[in-house]
Amino acid sequence: MPHADTLDVVHHDDTRTRFTDVRYQLHRDGIRIWSADGEHAITDVLMTQAYRQREADR
């Protein structure tokens, strides 16, 4: 499961939601995100931008 230091979700109405230090999974119905705040499921996804500033854990 990918990890991102910053994950921006762009919605169909061009609004953005930003998450930090998350794991995420893209799927046909949208994106599922796991953060310190809990689990989020977003279905109105136009685009995502994930940023990783450190090396991935192996």
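[next item in queue]
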Amino acid sequence: MRQARHPDVTELTLVSVLTALSDPIRVGVVRVLSDGRERGWGELRAPVAKSTLSHHLRVLRDAGITRTRQEGTRCYVTLRRDDVEARFPGLLDVVLAAAHADDVGRQVELGAGAS
């Protein structure tokens, strides 16, 4: 597998970030990752096929919202909170608060064995 490309913080655009956050599954992934911990892709549970979840993770990565790290055959993802905050101060906090209030993304959770 080739190394994933992550946009520099200066390359993040409001349109790409908001587009990535326009899907409830992707908002759910961000909610799960908002605790600041790196998670293995296999820990994430969503009511979509694995290939669809992989697509959602790629959209988030391409928008600069998450960072993906590969270790052998495993992939790990983390929220780029500091980078998004540097470019768009307060945006993630507002999105996460609204998602929590409206229960958006609740269907994405950590699977058994995740701590």
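[queue empty]
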